[in-house]
Amino acid sequence: MDSKSAKDSKRIHMLIVDDEPVICEGLRHTIDWEQLGVRAVGVAYDGMEALRRIEELDVQIVLTDIRMDGMDGLRLAECLKERFPDVRVVMISGYEDFEYARQAIRLGVSDYLLKPVEIDELTEVVKNIVGDIHGQRRDEDVQEAKLWLSNIVRQGIASGKEPPASLRGSGFRILATQMDRFIERFGKEPPPHYDRIQDDWVNLLHAELQRPDLRLVSVFDHENMLITLLISDIRMDGQAWDQLLEAVEPTLRRAGILCGASGIYSDLADTVERCAEAKALLPYHLLENRNVLFPKYRDITLKDAGIPAFDAANAASKLVAAMLKQDLNEVDGLVADMFSFFREQRYLPDNLWSTYEELAALIRQRMRKSGMTELETVHKTGPDMYLYNSYDALEGLVKERLREWLKLVERQGMDKSYWIVEKAKKYMNEHYRSDLKASEVAAWLKITPSYFSYIFKQSTGKGFTEYMNEMRMEQAKELLATTHDKVFEIADKVGYKEYKYFVSVFKTYTGMTPKEYRGLSAARDADVLNAKDSTTKR
Q1: Backbone Cα Rg of the chain
Q2: Is residue 538, in this structure, part of any structural domain at all?
Q3: What is this structure's pTM?
Q4: Considering only CA atoms, which of 133, 121, 111, 131 is closest in space to residue 59?
Q5: DSSP classification of residue 35
Q6: Do 266 and 237 contact (CB within 8 A), yes or no?
Q7: Nearest in space to 341 (alpha carbons), one of 308, 370, 364
Q8: Rounded to the nearest 10 degrees, what angle do helices 271-281 and 119-155 cross at?
Q9: Distance between CA atoms of 529 and 208, rounded to whole angstroms?
Q10: Which among 498, 507, 509 has a CA at the least distance from the CA of 468?
């Protein structure tokens, strides 16, 4: 659309209706309607003719006499109210009759003037009507533009509709803005007055960027995602666009608003792609100390990318051990160390969360082997990254989730540890003659060695090695007292392959060597036998 046709399309069409041709022509040519943004597109000499001309000429204002042969002005106004309710009517009457005025008001007539009409008065009336019509058109244009943009943003489509004419321009740019540190500032749920915060947010952005050759349309895609379409009526190069946005950065920083600016484009058909581009820039504020981000910053960051891999397996081992010990401080400390790594290595939120999910899967896998089946049913969904848009928010969420797991470990562990330990004791009693290790028992139970060691000590008050030594020593004492097996044979039977080590452990446990214990046991048995004999003789 060229400038002349665009200008013409904004003209208000007016029809002059009077049964006296001279009056029609006088009203048509006496006033400079064009200066008011009005085009007098024709005249009619009665109401019936007026109705035909209104339909043909797309009329918005009717200037009509009240008394005419045929259909008069009042009947015309009544028909217009039924058939063309948006047409504004200015009634002119040669009679100062209240009844006429009352009927005109009832019919929705915009104004009622008496003859002879004062030119200034008529001009002012029409001028006000033109202002109202333009205001209404602007409101309709804004709503139509918002609906189109909303469909683009939320559905990735424009409902098959062409962009409205009000969005035509020489260049476009999409801004995606959101409140920085949303969780820290507003919590998980927006406060009751958040709608006012959103209104202030939109008003601030529009006020900072508004200029005669730039129009803005804004819609919320999410409670913390505002999409704004910038429409320039003049051609601007990239530097001019960037300078315009850089100028508002201090204001956005003070307001705690982050902004991602898409590349410049000239075809509204590209809006879907540009919306995605602008949104994708926002996470880079964690890496760049800027509140307004352009595609060039992302490109520089990606060029320098190559973040080192996080050792999820090692972290999972440490976290599982800490959770099985139910040490909250250690768990929080390990998470803090993990996020220090993420910050230093410039992880983006999506990379960070996928790394955490890998870690969580390893934790669930290891805890499942310990009998913690309920961990499988929690935390299946990731966070809303529009809300959790800072390292601190994500770190807090990870700590919160691991604390929930700690509660499950505590609840399930108390119920299951008893039978696990009893099962372990039975297995140890059956295999104590071999060189049995704690890791072998844990593997047989299908739990982690650290978890087994923890619950075994909690249940028995002794470590695995201490408990096994005591069990073997009791068996050794029994064999020393009841058999004539050599000491090294007994050592081998109770699971000690090294004779000297067996003697050392036995002495530590009983305070004497195996031979001394056997001699003492034999003497004790002899005393018992003598006592029985003397009792029998009596």
Answers
A1: 44
A2: no
A3: 0.63
A4: 133
A5: G
A6: no
A7: 308
A8: 70
A9: 108
A10: 509
Domain count, the chain: 4
Picking from 334, 385, 379, the residue whose alpha carbon sits closest to that of residue 357 is 379
> What is the CATH number for 275?
3.30.70.270
Same domain, 427 and 410: no
Handedness of CA 116, 119, 123, 125 (dihedral sign): negative
Examine the domain organization and report whether 380 and 442 are in the same domain: no
Last residue of a domain, one of 89, 120, 135: 135
Centroid of chain to Cα 59:
49
What digits encode the pLDDT tens for the residues 5-19? 444 456 899 999 998
Segments forming the whole domain that contains residue 198: 169-303
Domain match, 355 and 445 both? no
Choose among 241, 231, 283: nearest CA to 260. Answer: 283
Q: How far apart are CA 282 and CA 180, in angstroms?
A: 10
Query: Residue 202 above 90 pLDDT?
Result: yes
Q: With beta carbons less than 8 A apart as the criterion, state whether 16 and 63 touch.
A: yes
Are the beta carbons of 228 and 150 closer than 8 angstroms? no
Task: Please report whether residue 219 resides in a domain.
Answer: yes
Pair (451, 386) in one structural domain: no
Q: 61-65 and 88-93 as β-strands: parallel, antiparallel, unpaired?
A: parallel
For the stretch 20-46, pLDDT in tens is 888 888 888 888 899 888 999 999 999
> What does residue 237 show for φ and ψ, rounded to 5 degrees?
-80, 175
**Greatest C-alpha distance within the chain:** 162
Tokens of 406: 């700690």
